[in-house]
């Protein structure tokens, strides 16, 4: 470095040449020093993971035993119906058990202090040999509520977990809002009424939100108060088990929305100040508080916190037979800044450095390692907005071991386009770039919209497209207005383009498949505790003359077509036409040819498209069919034959008839 500086000063006194020489040096510095640093970071992370895994195996016997700690903590029933209670409360001076079993006497049942901050209590069986606490008894504690399952009936699951899907089509769902009625729906309601719809729509996976117990309904389940309890507002544990078992009988995989990024700050019914300190499960002081969410942040360097969280994963897999997890707010876990006020540009310096929470990163590696070793078919999905490299690479490669990451930029792009850009000004290159801009070798789940876009303060795609006309002009008994016509056609095209071009998995939030009107808003003081918007109006699909039924049909056949041809499991698409003037996108994926015309006015006759494989082509899915709310302007059984005419980098091509006609001719006057 010094010799280079001397060389610059002596041989290149002018500033321009000095800058040029330093640029060359900078490139040398980057390749010689920074790139190896990436490998060092990878090796460092894997080394920390391996050390942590070896430590827990040495101290606990095996990671299998360590992650089954829920069987030794909480309440455990002996063969004579005596109860052993064990909790971890390192900051406590004394611990007592209280509940309706002892008339809520606060100090009648003290725990005995053990080593490492653990406390134990033994309750003898009653005179009639029954447990001292009945199954409907009320008590509290991090592991205690979970362990009440020992008192509940344990129904046998009748159906095995289905094979892991090669093409993952996820139906994101919330049990409480799954009814058209203005109430909190139940697990049984969801099992009876919603699972058959999911199956009919061709989704092979349901992702359940807000299952982990949470006191505040409007938190969407993201302010967890009890990690070892299924939300009681939806029914009993047996009801949830029946839901999962029924889904498995339909061949539907079930994922749980897992919140290990933070916890509710509640003290009466949550983990906060459980042992009288602010640092039992969490970081002490300001580091343990999320400044935007008002929640507590776990201390992933703590041995017992890792035990608690890994045991929590095992419990949901073992007790409820979930097939995997969608890990929420991974970005908040990965960085000390939690993503607050941070814009990620993709520069590697954003992902490696002291701002990364290596303890949280190692915890996620442990979680993925254990889940995939013990349950080889398990699916893990990361919600990360930062684009952390290696998130979905194997742990042996220095990655974090997730199976999929969510491509969260895509729904933001669609909302931005609909809000800010006229149809004729859509930048197709930018849209395609957003859909295809993902890390190679790391599988992505793409979606046009999720629950985030449905929440109050935002709008679903359907509402952005059709707004108030959805209340008055969705009847198929009357002619479509220009607004409804445009909205229905673009709703289908946006979803199909996202589905086919955007990733290796696809996600849809419940109800959005048929263009659910309005927004989502939970009961709160600001809306007079109303349930009017905390529901999904599936009844709209059942009314034959409403056009919601047409959007539902297209979504179903889109999924069924993917199920037949498997484009999600294929490699990334090859885009052969991206014509900004014509507003046409053409690409190949999984031996299928996709042709999109987004022009608001023009249709095209004898439009040439390039293909890789010679032969005969037939239409397999046509958004303009009448049953999908289209205009029926294409002959469905038309056959197209290739000719050896090179075009757009392909040796074969053919001419297609009109790909689309005006969506709204009034826009082109």
List keywords for this structure.
4-stranded antiparallel sheet; globular; alpha/beta; 669 residues
Structure, explained:
The chain has helices at residues 2-11, 15-60, 63-66, 144-147, 187-201, 237-249, 303-320, 330-334, 358-374, 409-420, 428-436, 451-454, 461-466, 482-501, 548-565, and strands at 74-77, 83-88, 112-113, 118-123, 168-174, 205-209, 212-213, 226-230, 253-258, 324-327, 379-382, 404-406, 444-446, 505-509, 574-579, 584-589, 592-597, 607-611, 616-618, 639-641, 652-656. Residues 1-34, 146-152 and 659-667 have low confidence and may be disordered. The longest helix has 46 residues, at 15-60. It has 669 residues and is of the alpha/beta class. The strands form six sheets. The protein has an eight-stranded parallel barrel with strand order 5-6-9-10-11-12-13-14. The chain has a four-stranded antiparallel sheet with strand order 1-2-4-3.
Report strand %.
5-15%
Radius of gyration of CA atoms, rounded to a whole number: 28 Å
Low-confidence region ranges: 1-34, 146-152, 659-667
Number of strands: 21
The average pLDDT is 89
Q: Ends: how far apart?
A: 65 Å
> Percent range for helical residues?
25-40%
Biggest sheet record: 8 strands, parallel, barrel
Spatial arrangement of strands, main beta sheet? 5-6-9-10-11-12-13-14
Large-scale geometry = globular
Quaternary structure type? single chain
Helix/strand class = alpha/beta
Give the helix tally.
15
Catalytic activity: Transfers a segment of a (1->4)-alpha-D-glucan chain to a primary hydroxy group in a similar glucan chain
GO cellular component, one term: cytoplasm
Transmembrane segments: 20-41
InterPro entries: A-amylase/branching_C, Branching_enzy, GH, GH13_cat_dom, Glyco_hydro_13_N, Glyco_hydro_b, Ig-like_fold, Ig_E-set
């Amino acid at each position: 470095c010094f010799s280079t500086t001397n060389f610059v000063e002596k041989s290149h006194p002018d500033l321009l040449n000095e800058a040029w020489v330093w640029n060359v040096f900078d490139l040398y510095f980057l390749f010689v020093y920074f790139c190896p640093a990436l490998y060092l970071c990878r090796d460092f992370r894997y080394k920390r993971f391996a050390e942590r895994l070896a430590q827990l195996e040495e101290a606990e016997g095996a990671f299998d035993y360590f992650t089954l700690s829920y069987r030794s903590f909480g309440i455990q029933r002996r063969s004579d119906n005596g109860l052993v209670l064990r909790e971890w409360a390192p900051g406590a001076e004394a611990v007592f058990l209280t509940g309706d079993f002892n008339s809520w006497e606060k100090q009648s049942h003290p725990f005995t202090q053990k080593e490492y901050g653990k406390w134990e209590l033994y309750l003898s069986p009653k005179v009639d040999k029954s447990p001292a606490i009945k199954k409907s008894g009320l008590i509290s504690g991090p592991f205690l509520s979970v362990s009440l399952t020992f008192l509940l009936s344990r129904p046998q699951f009748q159906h095995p977990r289905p094979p892991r899907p090669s093409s993952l089509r996820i139906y994101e769902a919330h049990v409480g809002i799954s009814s058209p009625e203005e109430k909190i729906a139940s697990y049984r309601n969801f099992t009876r009424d919603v699972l058959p719809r999911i199956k009919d729509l061709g989704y092979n996976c349901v992702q359940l939100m807000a299952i982990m117990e949470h006191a505040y309904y409007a938190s969407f389940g993201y302010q967890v108060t009890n990690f070892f309890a299924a939300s009681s507002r939806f029914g009993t544990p047996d009801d949830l088990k029946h839901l999962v078992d029924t889904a498995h009988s339909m061949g539907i995989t079930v994922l749980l929305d897992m919140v290990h990024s933070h916890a509710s700050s509640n003290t009466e019914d949550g983990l906060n100040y459980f042992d009288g300190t602010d640092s039992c499960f969490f970081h002490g002081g300001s580091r343990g508080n999320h400044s935007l969410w008002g929640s507590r942040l776990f201390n992933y360097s703590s041995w017992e916190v890792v035990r608690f969280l890994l045991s929590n994963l095992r419990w949901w897999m073992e007790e409820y037979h979930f097939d995997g997890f969608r890990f929420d707010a991974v970005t908040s876990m990965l960085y000390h800044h939690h993503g607050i006020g941070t814009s990620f540009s993709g520069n590697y310096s954003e992902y490696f450095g002291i701002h990364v929470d290596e303890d949280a990163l190692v915890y996620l590696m442990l979680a993925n390692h254990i889940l995939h070793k013990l349950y080889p078919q398990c699916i893990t999905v990361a919600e990360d907005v930062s684009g952390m490299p290696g998130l979905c690479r194997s742990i042996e490669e220095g990655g974090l071991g997730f199976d999929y990451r969510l491509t969260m930029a895509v729904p933001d792009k669609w909302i931005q386009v609909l809000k800010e850009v006229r149809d004729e000004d859509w930048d197709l290159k930018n849209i395609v770039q957003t859909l295809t801009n993902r890390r190679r070798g790391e599988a992505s789940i793409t979606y046009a919209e999720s629950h985030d876009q449905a929440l109050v303060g935002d709008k679903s795609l359907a509402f952005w497209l059709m707004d108030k006309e959805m209340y008055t002009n969705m009847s198929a008994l009357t002619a479509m207005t220009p607004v409804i016509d445009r909205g229905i056609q673009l709703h289908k095209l946006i979803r199909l383009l996202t589905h086919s071009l955007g990733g290796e998995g696809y996600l849809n939030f419940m109800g959005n498949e048929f263009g659910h009107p309005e927004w989502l808003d939970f009961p709160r003081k600001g809306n007079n505790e109303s349930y009017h918007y905390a529901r999904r109006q599936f009844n709209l699909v059942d009314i034959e003359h409403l056009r919601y039924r047409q959007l539902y049909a297209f979504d179903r056949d889109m999924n069924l077509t993917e199920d037949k041809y498997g484009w999600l499991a294929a490699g990334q698409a090859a885009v052969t036409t991206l014509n900004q003037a014509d507003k046409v996108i053409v690409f190949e994926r999984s031996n299928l040819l996709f042709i999109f015309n987004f022009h608001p006015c023009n249709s095209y006759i004898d439009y040439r498209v390039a293909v890789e494989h010679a032969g005969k082509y037939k239409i397999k899915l046509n958004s303009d069919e009448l049953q999908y709310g289209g205009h029926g302007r294409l002959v469905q059984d038309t056959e197209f034959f290739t000719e050896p005419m090179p075009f757009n980098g392909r040796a074969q091509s053919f001419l297609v008839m009109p790909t689309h006609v005006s969506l709204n001719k009034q826009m082109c006057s």
